[in-house]
Amino acid sequence: MSDKTIKQVSVFVENKPGRLAAVTEKLYEKGINIRAFTIAEAGDFGIIRMVVDKTDEAYKTLKDAGFTVTLTRVLGVEVEDEPGGLYKIAKALGNANINIEYVYAFTFGGDKALIILRVDDIDKATEILEKEGLLFKGEI
Amino acid sequence: MYWDPRAEKMPQKDLQDIQERKLRALVHHAYEYSPFYRRKFKEMGLNPWDITGLKDLPKLPFTKKQDLRDNYPFGMFAVPISQIVRFHASSGTTGKPTVVGYTANDIEVWVESMCRSLTACGVTRDDIMQISYGYGLFTGGLGFHYAAERIGATVLPTSAGNTQRQIELMRDLHSTVIACTPSYMLYLAEYASKAGISIADDTKLRMGIFGAEPWSEETRKRIEEKTGITAYDVYGTSELSGPLFTECQERQGLHIWADHFLIEIIDPETGEQVGEGEKGELVVTTLSKEAMPLIRWRTGDITIMETEKCACGRTHPRILRILGRADDMIIVRGVNVFPSQIEHVLMQIPEVGEHYMIILDRAENGLDIMTVQVELSEKAFTDKVSDILELEKRIAEHLKAVLNVTAKVEIVNPGTLQRFEGKAKRVIDRRKI
Smallest CA–CA separation between B263 and chain A, in Å? Predict the structure, then answer.
Protein backbone atom coordinates (compact mmCIF):
# COMPACT_ATOMS: atom_id res chain seq x y z
CA MET A 1 0.00 0.00 0.00
CA SER A 2 3.00 2.23 0.44
CA ASP A 3 2.79 3.45 -3.17
CA LYS A 4 -0.42 5.24 -2.26
CA THR A 5 1.19 7.10 0.61
CA ILE A 6 3.35 10.19 0.50
CA LYS A 7 6.81 10.47 2.00
CA GLN A 8 7.11 13.47 4.23
CA VAL A 9 10.51 14.94 5.11
CA SER A 10 10.77 15.69 8.84
CA VAL A 11 13.66 17.78 10.16
CA PHE A 12 14.67 18.45 13.75
CA VAL A 13 15.57 22.10 14.33
CA GLU A 14 16.58 23.98 17.42
CA ASN A 15 14.42 27.00 18.07
CA LYS A 16 17.05 29.57 17.14
CA PRO A 17 17.17 32.38 14.59
CA GLY A 18 18.36 31.28 11.17
CA ARG A 19 17.57 27.57 11.47
CA LEU A 20 14.63 27.60 9.05
CA ALA A 21 16.67 29.69 6.64
CA ALA A 22 19.49 27.13 6.81
CA VAL A 23 17.12 24.26 5.95
CA THR A 24 15.30 26.04 3.12
CA GLU A 25 18.53 27.39 1.66
CA LYS A 26 19.81 23.84 1.13
CA LEU A 27 16.60 22.88 -0.67
CA TYR A 28 16.64 26.03 -2.76
CA GLU A 29 20.22 25.32 -3.86
CA LYS A 30 19.12 21.94 -5.19
CA GLY A 31 16.03 23.34 -6.88
CA ILE A 32 13.70 21.37 -4.64
CA ASN A 33 10.18 22.71 -4.41
CA ILE A 34 8.24 22.60 -1.16
CA ARG A 35 4.59 21.71 -1.79
CA ALA A 36 3.28 21.62 1.76
CA PHE A 37 4.93 22.76 4.92
CA THR A 38 4.38 23.12 8.66
CA ILE A 39 6.41 23.50 11.84
CA ALA A 40 5.48 21.71 15.04
CA GLU A 41 6.90 23.94 17.72
CA ALA A 42 7.78 22.76 21.25
CA GLY A 43 9.73 25.35 23.19
CA ASP A 44 13.43 24.97 22.58
CA PHE A 45 13.06 22.90 19.42
CA GLY A 46 10.70 22.31 16.55
CA ILE A 47 10.09 19.75 13.84
CA ILE A 48 9.72 20.95 10.27
CA ARG A 49 7.40 18.73 8.27
CA MET A 50 7.16 19.11 4.54
CA VAL A 51 6.16 17.45 1.34
CA VAL A 52 8.51 18.24 -1.52
CA ASP A 53 8.74 17.37 -5.20
CA LYS A 54 12.05 15.45 -4.95
CA THR A 55 11.81 13.64 -1.65
CA ASP A 56 14.85 11.37 -1.77
CA GLU A 57 17.11 14.15 -2.96
CA ALA A 58 15.81 16.45 -0.24
CA TYR A 59 16.46 13.79 2.38
CA LYS A 60 20.02 13.23 1.21
CA THR A 61 20.77 16.93 0.86
CA LEU A 62 19.64 17.73 4.40
CA LYS A 63 21.34 14.67 5.87
CA ASP A 64 24.63 15.58 4.20
CA ALA A 65 24.29 19.11 5.55
CA GLY A 66 24.22 17.65 9.06
CA PHE A 67 20.53 17.95 9.85
CA THR A 68 18.65 15.30 11.76
CA VAL A 69 16.10 14.21 9.23
CA THR A 70 13.75 11.31 8.77
CA LEU A 71 11.15 10.23 6.24
CA THR A 72 7.63 9.64 7.48
CA ARG A 73 4.75 7.96 5.65
CA VAL A 74 1.73 10.24 5.52
CA LEU A 75 -1.48 10.36 3.51
CA GLY A 76 -2.44 12.98 0.98
CA VAL A 77 -6.13 13.68 0.51
CA GLU A 78 -7.59 15.69 -2.30
CA VAL A 79 -10.88 17.52 -1.74
CA GLU A 80 -12.87 20.27 -3.40
CA ASP A 81 -12.03 23.66 -1.93
CA GLU A 82 -15.50 24.11 -0.45
CA PRO A 83 -17.21 23.84 2.94
CA GLY A 84 -17.26 20.34 4.44
CA GLY A 85 -14.10 19.06 2.72
CA LEU A 86 -12.20 18.20 5.84
CA TYR A 87 -15.35 17.08 7.63
CA LYS A 88 -15.88 14.22 5.15
CA ILE A 89 -12.44 12.83 5.85
CA ALA A 90 -12.50 13.29 9.59
CA LYS A 91 -15.88 11.58 9.79
CA ALA A 92 -14.83 8.61 7.65
CA LEU A 93 -11.68 8.05 9.70
CA GLY A 94 -13.41 8.67 13.01
CA ASN A 95 -16.10 6.12 12.18
CA ALA A 96 -13.36 3.58 11.47
CA ASN A 97 -11.76 4.39 14.84
CA ILE A 98 -8.60 5.76 13.25
CA ASN A 99 -6.80 8.54 15.11
CA ILE A 100 -5.43 11.55 13.26
CA GLU A 101 -2.10 12.49 14.79
CA TYR A 102 -1.62 15.69 12.87
CA VAL A 103 -2.87 17.39 9.75
CA TYR A 104 -1.94 20.34 7.56
CA ALA A 105 -3.36 21.58 4.33
CA PHE A 106 -3.01 23.92 1.40
CA THR A 107 -5.08 24.85 -1.61
CA PHE A 108 -3.99 24.53 -5.21
CA GLY A 109 -5.31 24.92 -8.72
CA GLY A 110 -7.89 27.46 -7.52
CA ASP A 111 -10.54 24.90 -6.60
CA LYS A 112 -8.69 22.04 -4.88
CA ALA A 113 -7.23 21.51 -1.44
CA LEU A 114 -4.53 19.01 -0.52
CA ILE A 115 -4.65 17.74 3.03
CA ILE A 116 -1.67 15.92 4.57
CA LEU A 117 -2.52 13.52 7.37
CA ARG A 118 -0.57 11.35 9.74
CA VAL A 119 -2.74 8.64 11.26
CA ASP A 120 -2.13 5.80 13.66
CA ASP A 121 -3.16 3.09 11.16
CA ILE A 122 -2.01 4.15 7.74
CA ASP A 123 -2.96 0.98 5.87
CA LYS A 124 -6.51 0.94 7.12
CA ALA A 125 -6.87 4.70 6.50
CA THR A 126 -5.63 4.28 2.93
CA GLU A 127 -8.25 1.64 2.29
CA ILE A 128 -11.09 3.77 3.63
CA LEU A 129 -10.07 6.96 1.83
CA GLU A 130 -9.58 5.08 -1.41
CA LYS A 131 -13.07 3.66 -1.08
CA GLU A 132 -14.41 7.19 -0.56
CA GLY A 133 -12.44 8.27 -3.63
CA LEU A 134 -10.56 10.92 -1.71
CA LEU A 135 -6.97 9.69 -1.90
CA PHE A 136 -4.62 12.06 -3.68
CA LYS A 137 -3.35 10.54 -6.90
CA GLY A 138 -1.67 13.43 -8.61
CA GLU A 139 1.96 14.40 -8.86
CA ILE A 140 3.45 16.13 -5.85
CA MET B 1 41.92 -14.31 52.36
CA TYR B 2 43.89 -11.82 54.40
CA TRP B 3 47.52 -10.68 54.35
CA ASP B 4 47.61 -9.49 57.94
CA PRO B 5 44.35 -10.68 59.52
CA ARG B 6 45.08 -9.20 62.92
CA ALA B 7 45.43 -5.71 61.43
CA GLU B 8 42.77 -6.05 58.77
CA LYS B 9 40.04 -7.35 61.10
CA MET B 10 41.02 -5.22 64.09
CA PRO B 11 37.98 -3.95 66.04
CA GLN B 12 37.14 -0.39 65.01
CA LYS B 13 37.65 0.79 68.57
CA ASP B 14 41.26 -0.45 68.51
CA LEU B 15 41.83 1.17 65.12
CA GLN B 16 40.60 4.43 66.56
CA ASP B 17 42.96 4.13 69.53
CA ILE B 18 45.88 3.67 67.15
CA GLN B 19 44.75 6.70 65.16
CA GLU B 20 44.47 8.87 68.30
CA ARG B 21 47.95 7.91 69.43
CA LYS B 22 49.57 8.20 66.00
CA LEU B 23 47.92 11.55 65.27
CA ARG B 24 49.37 13.07 68.45
CA ALA B 25 52.81 11.74 67.58
CA LEU B 26 52.51 12.96 63.98
CA VAL B 27 51.69 16.51 65.02
CA HIS B 28 54.76 16.70 67.26
CA HIS B 29 56.99 15.10 64.64
CA ALA B 30 55.82 17.50 61.94
CA TYR B 31 56.17 20.52 64.19
CA GLU B 32 59.67 19.58 65.35
CA TYR B 33 61.19 18.51 62.06
CA SER B 34 59.26 19.82 59.05
CA PRO B 35 60.10 23.48 58.32
CA PHE B 36 56.80 23.85 56.49
CA TYR B 37 54.57 22.60 59.29
CA ARG B 38 56.54 24.46 61.98
CA ARG B 39 55.99 27.73 60.10
CA LYS B 40 52.36 26.90 59.42
CA PHE B 41 51.57 26.03 63.04
CA LYS B 42 53.25 29.22 64.24
CA GLU B 43 51.28 31.34 61.77
CA MET B 44 48.06 29.76 63.04
CA GLY B 45 49.07 30.08 66.68
CA LEU B 46 48.64 26.33 66.99
CA ASN B 47 50.59 24.43 69.65
CA PRO B 48 51.13 20.68 69.01
CA TRP B 49 49.88 20.06 72.56
CA ASP B 50 46.48 21.51 71.50
CA ILE B 51 45.89 18.31 69.52
CA THR B 52 44.84 15.67 71.98
CA GLY B 53 42.99 13.33 69.66
CA LEU B 54 40.80 12.82 66.59
CA LYS B 55 38.23 15.36 67.78
CA ASP B 56 40.85 18.10 67.30
CA LEU B 57 41.42 17.20 63.64
CA PRO B 58 39.48 20.23 62.32
CA LYS B 59 41.93 22.52 64.15
CA LEU B 60 44.75 21.29 61.94
CA PRO B 61 45.61 23.06 58.68
CA PHE B 62 45.00 21.53 55.27
CA THR B 63 47.98 20.72 53.08
CA LYS B 64 47.57 21.47 49.36
CA LYS B 65 49.44 20.67 46.18
CA GLN B 66 50.60 24.28 46.06
CA ASP B 67 52.35 23.82 49.44
CA LEU B 68 54.42 21.01 47.92
CA ARG B 69 55.31 23.17 44.94
CA ASP B 70 56.17 26.20 47.08
CA ASN B 71 58.46 24.09 49.27
CA TYR B 72 60.17 22.20 46.46
CA PRO B 73 62.36 20.24 46.89
CA PHE B 74 62.91 19.61 50.61
CA GLY B 75 60.80 22.10 52.55
CA MET B 76 58.19 19.49 53.50
CA PHE B 77 60.69 16.88 54.62
CA ALA B 78 60.90 15.93 58.30
CA VAL B 79 64.03 13.75 58.28
CA PRO B 80 67.61 14.40 57.14
CA ILE B 81 68.37 13.29 53.58
CA SER B 82 70.67 10.56 54.93
CA GLN B 83 67.55 8.72 56.10
CA ILE B 84 65.84 8.95 52.73
CA VAL B 85 66.14 5.74 50.73
CA ARG B 86 64.16 6.73 47.66
CA PHE B 87 62.70 9.72 45.82
CA HIS B 88 59.73 9.78 43.49
CA ALA B 89 58.71 12.89 41.60
CA SER B 90 55.74 14.07 39.59
CA SER B 91 56.25 14.93 35.94
CA GLY B 92 55.58 18.62 36.54
CA THR B 93 53.36 18.89 33.49
CA THR B 94 50.94 21.22 35.27
CA GLY B 95 53.59 23.43 36.84
CA LYS B 96 56.59 22.90 39.07
CA PRO B 97 57.26 19.25 39.85
CA THR B 98 56.64 17.87 43.31
CA VAL B 99 59.06 15.51 44.97
CA VAL B 100 58.30 12.89 47.59
CA GLY B 101 60.88 11.09 49.75
CA TYR B 102 60.66 7.82 51.66
CA THR B 103 62.54 6.38 54.61
CA ALA B 104 63.08 2.64 54.77
CA ASN B 105 60.11 2.44 57.11
CA ASP B 106 57.93 4.48 54.71
CA ILE B 107 58.66 1.97 51.96
CA GLU B 108 57.86 -0.83 54.41
CA VAL B 109 54.45 0.68 55.24
CA TRP B 110 53.75 1.22 51.55
CA VAL B 111 54.64 -2.37 50.64
CA GLU B 112 52.66 -3.83 53.55
CA SER B 113 49.60 -1.70 52.69
CA MET B 114 49.77 -2.84 49.10
CA CYS B 115 50.23 -6.50 50.16
CA ARG B 116 47.00 -6.26 52.13
CA SER B 117 45.26 -4.68 49.14
CA LEU B 118 46.49 -7.16 46.53
CA THR B 119 45.58 -10.07 48.79
CA ALA B 120 42.13 -8.57 49.35
CA CYS B 121 41.41 -8.57 45.61
CA GLY B 122 42.72 -12.10 45.26
CA VAL B 123 46.38 -12.02 44.19
CA THR B 124 48.32 -15.02 45.57
CA ARG B 125 51.79 -16.57 45.32
CA ASP B 126 50.47 -18.72 42.46
CA ASP B 127 49.82 -15.71 40.26
CA ILE B 128 51.98 -14.38 37.47
CA MET B 129 51.55 -10.67 37.65
CA GLN B 130 52.25 -8.49 34.65
CA ILE B 131 52.93 -4.95 35.83
CA SER B 132 52.24 -2.63 32.94
CA TYR B 133 52.30 0.59 34.92
CA GLY B 134 55.30 2.79 34.23
CA TYR B 135 58.43 2.14 36.31
CA GLY B 136 60.67 5.02 37.31
CA LEU B 137 59.84 8.31 38.96
CA PHE B 138 56.14 7.47 38.57
CA THR B 139 55.09 5.43 41.60
CA GLY B 140 52.82 2.92 39.83
CA GLY B 141 55.26 0.28 38.63
CA LEU B 142 57.45 -0.01 41.74
CA GLY B 143 54.43 0.31 44.04
CA PHE B 144 52.89 -2.86 42.64
CA HIS B 145 56.24 -4.56 42.11
CA TYR B 146 57.49 -4.80 45.68
CA ALA B 147 54.14 -5.92 47.08
CA ALA B 148 53.63 -8.59 44.42
CA GLU B 149 57.10 -9.97 45.11
CA ARG B 150 56.54 -10.00 48.84
CA ILE B 151 53.29 -11.91 48.37
CA GLY B 152 55.34 -14.41 46.41
CA ALA B 153 53.67 -13.88 43.06
CA THR B 154 55.85 -14.07 39.95
CA VAL B 155 56.40 -10.58 38.66
CA LEU B 156 56.63 -9.72 34.99
CA PRO B 157 57.80 -6.08 35.03
CA THR B 158 56.81 -5.09 31.50
CA SER B 159 56.27 -1.42 32.37
CA ALA B 160 54.09 0.63 30.03
CA GLY B 161 54.19 0.56 26.24
CA ASN B 162 55.42 -1.90 23.58
CA THR B 163 51.97 -3.39 23.27
CA GLN B 164 52.83 -6.21 20.90
CA ARG B 165 55.47 -7.54 23.29
CA GLN B 166 53.06 -7.16 26.23
CA ILE B 167 50.60 -9.47 24.52
CA GLU B 168 53.29 -11.92 23.42
CA LEU B 169 54.66 -12.20 26.97
CA MET B 170 51.17 -12.39 28.45
CA ARG B 171 50.46 -15.40 26.26
CA ASP B 172 53.83 -17.14 26.45
CA LEU B 173 54.47 -16.71 30.18
CA HIS B 174 50.84 -17.24 31.21
CA SER B 175 50.22 -13.97 33.06
CA THR B 176 47.19 -14.33 35.32
CA VAL B 177 46.97 -10.78 36.69
CA ILE B 178 47.63 -7.46 35.00
CA ALA B 179 48.04 -4.03 36.56
CA CYS B 180 47.71 -1.03 34.26
CA THR B 181 45.45 1.92 33.50
CA PRO B 182 41.92 0.94 32.39
CA SER B 183 42.39 2.74 29.10
CA TYR B 184 45.58 0.78 28.41
CA MET B 185 43.69 -2.48 29.12
CA LEU B 186 41.09 -1.53 26.52
CA TYR B 187 43.87 -0.72 24.08
CA LEU B 188 45.62 -4.05 24.80
CA ALA B 189 42.37 -5.91 24.16
CA GLU B 190 41.75 -4.06 20.92
CA TYR B 191 45.33 -4.59 19.76
CA ALA B 192 45.19 -8.29 20.61
CA SER B 193 41.92 -8.78 18.78
CA LYS B 194 43.29 -7.11 15.64
CA ALA B 195 46.17 -9.58 15.81
CA GLY B 196 43.64 -12.40 16.03
CA ILE B 197 44.25 -13.07 19.72
CA SER B 198 41.43 -13.27 22.22
CA ILE B 199 42.47 -12.39 25.75
CA ALA B 200 39.60 -14.50 27.05
CA ASP B 201 40.44 -17.63 25.08
CA ASP B 202 44.12 -17.45 24.24
CA THR B 203 45.61 -16.23 27.53
CA LYS B 204 45.41 -17.24 31.17
CA LEU B 205 44.65 -13.69 32.35
CA ARG B 206 41.98 -13.82 35.08
CA MET B 207 42.00 -10.40 36.67
CA GLY B 208 43.23 -6.85 36.33
CA ILE B 209 43.87 -4.03 38.78
CA PHE B 210 43.15 -0.70 37.17
CA GLY B 211 43.59 2.89 38.23
CA ALA B 212 45.76 6.01 37.92
CA GLU B 213 42.98 7.69 35.97
CA PRO B 214 39.25 8.17 36.60
CA TRP B 215 37.13 5.36 35.19
CA SER B 216 33.52 4.35 35.43
CA GLU B 217 31.43 1.30 36.17
CA GLU B 218 30.56 1.22 32.44
CA THR B 219 34.27 0.92 31.61
CA ARG B 220 34.58 -1.91 34.11
CA LYS B 221 31.75 -3.76 32.35
CA ARG B 222 33.28 -3.13 28.96
CA ILE B 223 36.70 -4.46 30.06
CA GLU B 224 35.14 -7.54 31.63
CA GLU B 225 32.98 -8.29 28.59
CA LYS B 226 35.83 -7.87 26.14
CA THR B 227 38.47 -9.84 28.04
CA GLY B 228 36.63 -12.21 30.34
CA ILE B 229 38.70 -11.03 33.32
CA THR B 230 37.55 -9.52 36.62
CA ALA B 231 38.43 -5.85 36.99
CA TYR B 232 39.36 -4.21 40.31
CA ASP B 233 39.83 -0.55 41.14
CA VAL B 234 43.01 0.77 42.78
CA TYR B 235 43.65 4.16 44.35
CA GLY B 236 46.69 6.07 45.48
CA THR B 237 48.37 9.38 44.84
CA SER B 238 52.08 9.98 44.47
CA GLU B 239 52.04 12.35 47.47
CA LEU B 240 50.69 9.66 49.79
CA SER B 241 52.97 7.01 48.20
CA GLY B 242 51.67 5.61 44.95
CA PRO B 243 49.16 2.80 44.64
CA LEU B 244 47.89 1.85 48.10
CA PHE B 245 44.27 0.78 48.21
CA THR B 246 42.13 -1.59 46.16
CA GLU B 247 38.69 -3.08 46.29
CA CYS B 248 38.28 -6.44 47.99
CA GLN B 249 36.40 -9.22 46.24
CA GLU B 250 33.09 -7.73 47.43
CA ARG B 251 33.84 -4.71 45.21
CA GLN B 252 31.92 -2.36 47.51
CA GLY B 253 34.55 0.36 47.69
CA LEU B 254 38.30 0.52 48.29
CA HIS B 255 39.63 -0.35 51.74
CA ILE B 256 41.68 2.41 53.34
CA TRP B 257 44.18 0.99 55.85
CA ALA B 258 43.17 3.14 58.78
CA ASP B 259 46.12 2.26 61.02
CA HIS B 260 48.33 4.12 58.53
CA PHE B 261 46.00 6.59 56.85
CA LEU B 262 43.35 8.75 58.48
CA ILE B 263 40.66 9.87 56.08
CA GLU B 264 38.00 12.55 56.14
CA ILE B 265 35.50 13.71 53.54
CA ILE B 266 35.03 17.46 53.40
CA ASP B 267 32.94 19.94 51.49
CA PRO B 268 35.54 21.35 49.09
CA GLU B 269 34.00 24.81 49.35
CA THR B 270 33.70 25.23 53.11
CA GLY B 271 36.38 22.78 54.23
CA GLU B 272 33.98 21.29 56.75
CA GLN B 273 33.55 17.57 57.23
CA VAL B 274 30.42 16.14 55.61
CA GLY B 275 28.24 13.41 57.08
CA GLU B 276 28.57 9.70 56.49
CA GLY B 277 27.47 8.68 53.02
CA GLU B 278 27.73 12.21 51.63
CA LYS B 279 30.06 12.98 48.79
CA GLY B 280 32.95 15.39 49.12
CA GLU B 281 36.70 15.76 48.78
CA LEU B 282 38.92 13.04 50.18
CA VAL B 283 41.39 14.37 52.75
CA VAL B 284 44.14 12.07 54.03
CA THR B 285 46.46 12.39 57.02
CA THR B 286 49.45 10.06 56.89
CA LEU B 287 49.81 8.44 60.31
CA SER B 288 52.97 6.44 59.71
CA LYS B 289 55.03 8.45 57.24
CA GLU B 290 58.37 9.72 58.50
CA ALA B 291 60.11 11.38 55.55
CA MET B 292 57.28 13.56 54.36
CA PRO B 293 54.30 13.38 56.70
CA LEU B 294 51.17 15.04 55.34
CA ILE B 295 48.53 16.54 57.57
CA ARG B 296 45.04 16.77 56.07
CA TRP B 297 46.27 16.35 52.50
CA ARG B 298 43.63 17.54 50.08
CA THR B 299 43.60 14.96 47.33
CA GLY B 300 41.19 16.94 45.13
CA ASP B 301 39.35 13.67 44.49
CA ILE B 302 35.62 13.45 45.17
CA THR B 303 34.24 10.32 46.75
CA ILE B 304 31.98 8.97 49.48
CA MET B 305 33.21 7.25 52.65
CA GLU B 306 31.64 4.09 54.08
CA THR B 307 32.60 3.05 57.59
CA GLU B 308 30.28 0.09 58.00
CA LYS B 309 32.13 -3.22 58.30
CA CYS B 310 32.55 -4.88 54.91
CA ALA B 311 31.10 -8.30 54.12
CA CYS B 312 34.69 -9.47 53.61
CA GLY B 313 35.30 -9.08 57.35
CA ARG B 314 37.67 -6.14 57.10
CA THR B 315 36.91 -3.36 59.54
CA HIS B 316 38.74 -0.53 57.79
CA PRO B 317 36.71 2.24 56.13
CA ARG B 318 36.13 2.27 52.41
CA ILE B 319 35.90 4.95 49.78
CA LEU B 320 33.68 4.53 46.75
CA ARG B 321 34.90 4.94 43.20
CA ILE B 322 36.33 8.43 42.60
CA LEU B 323 33.46 10.53 41.22
CA GLY B 324 35.51 13.39 39.89
CA ARG B 325 37.83 16.22 40.81
CA ALA B 326 37.02 18.94 43.33
CA ASP B 327 38.20 21.60 40.89
CA ASP B 328 35.47 20.49 38.44
CA MET B 329 32.73 20.96 41.01
CA ILE B 330 29.91 23.41 40.29
CA ILE B 331 27.42 24.66 42.83
CA VAL B 332 23.83 24.92 41.67
CA ARG B 333 21.30 26.27 44.14
CA GLY B 334 23.63 25.30 46.95
CA VAL B 335 24.03 21.72 45.75
CA ASN B 336 27.42 20.36 44.68
CA VAL B 337 27.27 18.94 41.18
CA PHE B 338 30.03 17.20 39.24
CA PRO B 339 30.00 17.07 35.45
CA SER B 340 31.05 13.42 35.73
CA GLN B 341 27.72 12.63 37.41
CA ILE B 342 25.84 14.19 34.52
CA GLU B 343 27.97 12.28 32.04
CA HIS B 344 27.24 9.07 33.91
CA VAL B 345 23.48 9.64 33.58
CA LEU B 346 23.67 10.55 29.89
CA MET B 347 25.75 7.50 28.99
CA GLN B 348 22.95 5.26 30.20
CA ILE B 349 20.44 6.77 27.77
CA PRO B 350 20.81 5.30 24.28
CA GLU B 351 18.88 8.07 22.51
CA VAL B 352 21.56 10.66 23.18
CA GLY B 353 25.14 11.02 22.01
CA GLU B 354 28.20 11.33 24.22
CA HIS B 355 28.67 15.07 23.85
CA TYR B 356 27.05 17.48 26.26
CA MET B 357 27.28 21.00 27.66
CA ILE B 358 26.23 22.38 31.01
CA ILE B 359 25.09 26.00 31.04
CA LEU B 360 24.50 27.92 34.25
CA ASP B 361 22.39 31.06 34.38
CA ARG B 362 20.93 33.10 37.16
CA ALA B 363 17.29 34.12 36.84
CA GLU B 364 16.04 37.57 37.86
CA ASN B 365 14.70 36.12 41.09
CA GLY B 366 18.23 35.01 41.95
CA LEU B 367 17.62 31.32 41.35
CA ASP B 368 20.24 29.30 39.45
CA ILE B 369 19.16 27.63 36.26
CA MET B 370 21.15 24.67 35.00
CA THR B 371 20.64 23.67 31.40
CA VAL B 372 22.08 20.44 30.10
CA GLN B 373 22.38 20.31 26.32
CA VAL B 374 22.64 16.91 24.71
CA GLU B 375 22.75 15.80 21.13
CA LEU B 376 19.94 13.68 19.76
CA SER B 377 21.10 10.40 18.33
CA GLU B 378 20.16 10.19 14.61
CA LYS B 379 18.44 6.88 15.15
CA ALA B 380 16.20 8.22 17.91
CA PHE B 381 14.57 10.88 15.74
CA THR B 382 11.01 10.37 14.62
CA ASP B 383 8.79 13.18 13.39
CA LYS B 384 6.94 13.18 16.69
CA VAL B 385 7.31 16.14 19.01
CA SER B 386 6.01 14.03 21.87
CA ASP B 387 8.88 11.52 21.53
CA ILE B 388 11.46 14.25 22.00
CA LEU B 389 9.57 15.91 24.83
CA GLU B 390 9.30 12.53 26.53
CA LEU B 391 13.06 12.00 26.10
CA GLU B 392 13.83 15.42 27.58
CA LYS B 393 11.57 14.63 30.50
CA ARG B 394 13.16 11.23 31.04
CA ILE B 395 16.69 12.65 31.05
CA ALA B 396 15.63 15.42 33.44
CA GLU B 397 14.11 12.85 35.82
CA HIS B 398 17.29 10.74 35.80
CA LEU B 399 19.41 13.83 36.43
CA LYS B 400 17.18 14.98 39.26
CA ALA B 401 17.41 11.56 40.92
CA VAL B 402 21.20 11.56 40.78
CA LEU B 403 22.03 15.23 41.33
CA ASN B 404 19.23 16.23 43.67
CA VAL B 405 18.77 19.40 41.70
CA THR B 406 16.53 20.16 38.74
CA ALA B 407 18.12 20.57 35.34
CA LYS B 408 16.50 21.83 32.19
CA VAL B 409 17.31 19.47 29.34
CA GLU B 410 17.72 20.74 25.80
CA ILE B 411 18.04 18.36 22.91
CA VAL B 412 20.17 19.74 20.11
CA ASN B 413 21.18 18.62 16.64
CA PRO B 414 23.93 15.99 16.44
CA GLY B 415 27.33 17.47 15.71
CA THR B 416 26.49 20.94 16.97
CA LEU B 417 28.01 20.84 20.46
CA GLN B 418 31.65 21.73 20.85
CA ARG B 419 34.22 18.92 20.53
CA PHE B 420 37.39 18.93 22.60
CA GLU B 421 40.74 17.52 21.67
CA GLY B 422 42.38 18.08 25.02
CA LYS B 423 40.68 18.40 28.37
CA ALA B 424 37.01 19.05 27.79
CA LYS B 425 35.46 22.24 29.14
CA ARG B 426 31.82 21.36 29.42
CA VAL B 427 30.58 24.01 31.81
CA ILE B 428 29.60 27.52 30.75
CA ASP B 429 28.89 29.61 33.84
CA ARG B 430 27.02 32.76 32.87
CA ARG B 431 25.95 33.63 36.39
CA LYS B 432 26.91 37.06 37.62
CA ILE B 433 27.89 36.73 41.24
Answer: 46
Longest Cα pair distance anywhere in chain A, in angstroms? 45
CA–CA distance, B152 with B223 (Å, rounded to integer) = 27
The answer to whether A5 faces chain B, any CB pair under 8 Å, is no
Q: Output the pTM of the full model.
A: 0.74
**Residues B70-92: tens digit of each pLDDT:** 999 999 999 999 999 999 987 66
How many angstroms separate the CA atoms of B58 and B382, rounded?
56
Residues of chain B positioned with their CB less than 8 A from the CB of A118: 383
In a domain, A65, yes or no: yes
Q: Which domain holds residue A122?
A: 74-131
Residues 162-191, chain B: which have Cβ within 8 Å of A?
none
Instruction: Give the C-alpha distances (Å, rounded to integers) separating A111 from A79, A108, A140, B284.
Output: 9, 7, 17, 83
Which of B325, B358, B382 is the C-terminal boundary of a domain?
Answer: B325
**Residues B97-148: tens digit of each pLDDT:** 889 999 999 999 999 999 999 999 999 999 999 999 999 998 999 999 999 9
A78 and A33 fall within a common domain: no
Check A42 against B389: CB less than 8 A apart. Answer: yes
Same domain, B374 and B408: yes
Is this complex's ipTM strictly greater than 0.90?
no
- B123 shares a domain with B41: yes
Same domain, B401 and B306: no
